[in-house]
Amino acid sequence: MFLKHLECSACGRCHEWSRLQNLCVSCQKPLLAIVDLAAASRTLTRESLATREKSLWRYREVLPLPGELEPVSLGEGGTPLLRASGSCRTGDIDLWIKEESLNPTQSFKARGMTVAVSMAKYLGAEKLAVPSAGNAGGALAAYAARAGLEAHIFMPRDTPRANIIECRELAAHVTLIDGLITDCAAEIARRKEKEGWFDMSTLKEPYRVEGKKTLGYELAEQFAWQLPDVILYPTGGGTGLIGMWKAFDEMEMLGWIGKKRPRMFAVQATGCAPMVRAFEAGEKTAAEFSDAHTIASGLRVPKAIGDFLILNILRQSKGGAVAVDDEEMIRVARDVGSKEGLFVCPEGAACFAAFKSLHRAGKVGSGEQVVIFNTGSGIKYLECYNG
């Protein structure tokens, strides 16, 4: 293992990786894992990847967990990158879809949880807790079961039924809360010390982002080490966006890619768009979005702890933030289904809608290569597609 230490993403304070850690003890901001890339590069090369398993653990040297330990895995990662058909493309833009619904538990959340649960188990956690609007809960339930650990999942009462059933059938302890994911997080914070839970919330532990960064490694590998011009990513907590940006920096230090970066666009729902509002106002952090509501449960995150990181990435990459309303998500999901044969989640549909919007505004140009992330399966959201 080439993990050196954990570093605060805000104040830079170093923390030991060898014990369970949540937020920075100085400023209560997210911690990021710092890897010895020079040492990792001795065995991890672009050429060596060709012989490795089709799993995110193919990038083992840049992931935490001692090398002699078997990760808690269900075969996550290695998802297809599909070229969009002509009918979904616009003009001569080269549009691609990263199809994350083929992960275990049918969403990208499996990436973060395989790494986070593996490390939590290794470091001695026995009971894991997470607030979830849906897919993160299902992923934690699955990986905790696989690891032989307890899972305690707090969900808004109106979470899609499929997610609630999934968590219960995977033996998790599910508590439904009248409120939003922020209310669920507050309940965990109140009880975790007394109950002996380790908090697995988005960016409140350092390893889910390590699993998500493999999205960046996979994209680069699938595009023969040339990054696309534009990435559209559905953004609630933003772990994937932050993880990919970290991966790009690591790959540049490894000598695998150059300095070019994609323009990163965060896609949100009009009913919960704190990043869009903060980006447009030129703010460095995002105020909590009041009365948050959207059918895209993964986007119903009124306050993200990594807001400052997300906004910095959007600006540094010369990207932006786009909001899409619920009705448009459903309309576009049906359009994508009829043209691509993909039953995408509302969050993924929002990215297709945002792509059209950005093209009309001239923010995505002729001949550019664009990647849309479909982060989960529409099967999890059947209530949204009634009628």
Q: What would your notes on this structure say?
A:
The protein has helices at residues 37-40, 46-49, 109-122, 135-147, 161-169, 181-195, 208-212, 214-222, 239-254, 274-281, 307-316, 326-340, 346-360; strands spanning 3-8, 14-15, 31-35, 81-83, 94-99, 127-131, 150-156, 173-177, 198-199, 230-234, 263-269, 320-324, 369-374. The chain has 387 residues and is an alpha/beta fold. The chain has a domain at 81-107 and 208-385: 3-Layer(aba) Sandwich (Rossmann fold), CATH 3.40.50. The strands form three sheets. A six-stranded mixed beta sheet has the order 4-5-13-10-11-12, sandwiched between helices. The model has no long low-confidence stretch (mean pLDDT 96). 35% of the residues lie in helices and 17% in strands.
Helix and strand arrangement:
Blueprint: E1 3-8, E2 14-15, E3 31-35, H1 37-40, H2 46-49, E4 81-83, E5 94-99, H3 109-122, E6 127-131, H4 135-147, E7 150-156, H5 161-169, E8 173-177, H6 181-195, E9 198-199, H7 208-212, H8 214-222, E10 230-234, H9 239-254, E11 263-269, H10 274-281, H11 307-316, E12 320-324, H12 326-340, H13 346-360, E13 369-374
Parallel strand pairs: 5-13, 6-7, 6-9, 7-8, 10-11, 10-13, 11-12
Antiparallel strand pairs: 1-2, 1-3, 4-5
- Specify Rg, calculated over alpha carbons: 19 Å
Biggest β-sheet strands, sense, barrel:
6 strands, mixed
Low-confidence segments: none
List the quaternary state of the chains.
single chain
Helix share, percent: 25-40%
Identify the CATH class of the domain at 81-107 and 208-385.
Answer: Alpha Beta
Task: Give the DSSP E fraction (strand runs of 2 or more residues).
Answer: 15-25%
Distance between the termini: 51 Å
CATH architecture of the domain at 81-107 and 208-385: 3-Layer(aba) Sandwich
- The overall strand count is 13
Structural class: alpha/beta
The helix count comes to 13
For the largest beta sheet, what order do the strands appear in spatially?
4-5-13-10-11-12
Give me the strand/helix succession: EEEHHEEHEHEHEHEHHEHEHHEHHE
CATH topology of the domain at 81-107 and 208-385: Rossmann fold
Large-scale geometry: globular
